[in-house]
Amino acid sequence: MNLQTITVIAYIWLAIAIVVHITMFFVTAPFGRHTTENWGISINNKTAWIVMEMPSLLIMLCFLFRGHNSFNSYVWILFVLWIIHYFNRTLIYPFRIKATPKKMPLVIACSGAWFNLVNAGLNGYYLSELAPSDKYNASWLTSLPFIVGILLFFCGLIINWKADTILINLRKPGETGYKIPQGFLFKYVSSPNLFGEIMEWSGFALMAFNLPALTFMVWTFANLVPRAKNHHDWYLKHFPDYPKERKIVFPFLF
Ligand SMILES: NC(=O)c1ccc[n+]([C@@H]2O[C@H](COP(=O)([O-])OP(=O)(O)OC[C@H]3O[C@@H](n4cnc5c(N)ncnc54)[C@H](OP(=O)(O)O)[C@@H]3O)[C@@H](O)[C@H]2O)c1
Do the Cβ atoms of 241 and 190 come closer than 8 Å? Predict the structure, then answer.
C-alpha cells in the first residue's frame, strides 16, 4: 500500500470515529457496570479484555520486528511506547481486575478486537513502511512536539494506571459492588483513568505528528468521552451523596 491509499483509509476511519462518537451518546457500550444480557452471547470479562486488546499488542510487535523501516529510524520509540501501554492492557490489567459474575457480550469483545486490528494495522503499517526516516531522526528527539508529546504520554499513562489501580482496589476480596472513589484526580472527575488515556494518545499523536496517530487520538476521544459520561450519570443515579462538583472527565471543564 502506498501513502495515498493509507491516507484514504485514515480519512474513512476518522469519519467512522465521528459516527461512533455520536452513536455512543445514545447507546451505552454494555460492559463493566453497564453490562446487559440483551446483546446475545456473553463471555468471561477477563478473557474478553485479552481478546479485545491482544491484536494491538501482536500487530505492533510484528511490525516492529518484521517491518521494513522500523529499526532504520527513530520510529522504534513510538512502537515501544505503544507496546508498553498494550502490554499492560492485554497481559496485566485483565489479571488485576477483581473477578465478578459480570460478563461481556461477545459482540463487544469482537468489535473491540476489530477496532484494535484496524488501529494497530494502520499505525504499525505507516510507521514501519511509510514513515520518512528524515522526519524521525535525531533532531526529532529535540523538537517541541516530541518533547511535549512524550511528557503528555507518560503523564497520561501514570494517571491511567494510578486511577485504574484505585478503582480496582475499591473492592475487597469477594466484593462485587461499587463504591464512590475518593482522592487523587477523583476529587475533580469521575473517570480520571479515561482522562489519562485520552491524554496518553494525544501525547502520542503530538510526538508522532502523522495522520494515523491523529486518527487514534480522535478515536480515543470519541470512545471515552461518552463512556465517561455514562459512568458519571451512573454514579449520580446510584449514589445520592455523589459529589456534585465532580466533573465527568476533564478537570474543571466537562
Ligand atoms: N482506548 C480506548 O478506546 C479504551 C476503551 C475502553 C476502555 N479503555 C481503558 O480500559 C480501562 C477500563 O475502562 P472501563 O471504562 O471499563 O473502566 P472502569 O469502568 O472505570 O473500570 C475499571 C475497573 O474498576 C472497577 N470499578 C470501576 N469503578 C468502580 C467503583 N466505583 N467501585 C468498585 N469497582 C469499580 C471495574 O469493575 P467492573 O468492570 O465490575 O465495573 C473495573 O474492574 C481504562 O483504563 C480505560 O482507559 C480504553
Answer: no
5-18 per-position pLDDT tens digit: 999 999 999 999 99
Element holding 43 (H helix, E strand): strand 42-44
188 C-alpha to ligand 1 centroid (Å): 17
Q: Which of 52, 197, 225, 248 to mutate to test the pocket of ligand 1 (most atoms within 8 A of CB)?
A: 197
Against a cut of 0.90, is the pTM above it?
Answer: yes
CB 56 within 8 A of CB 120: yes
Rg (CA), the chain: 19
The stretch 143-169 carries a mean pLDDT of 98
Q: Which three cell numbers stand for residue 10?
A: 485514515
Which of 157, 193, 249 gets mutated to test ligand 1 (max ligand atoms within 8 A of its CB)?
A: 193
Q: Contact 124/63 with Cβ under 8 angstroms?
A: yes
Report the C-alpha gap between 23 and 11 in whole angstroms: 19
Is residue 242 within 8 Å of residue 236, measured between CB atoms?
yes
Q: How far is CA 159 from CA 17, 60, 71, 109, 143, in A?
A: 24, 23, 30, 25, 25
pLDDT at 102 exceeding the cut of 90: no
In angstroms, rounded to a whole number, what is the distance separating the alpha carbons of residues 71 and 116? 23
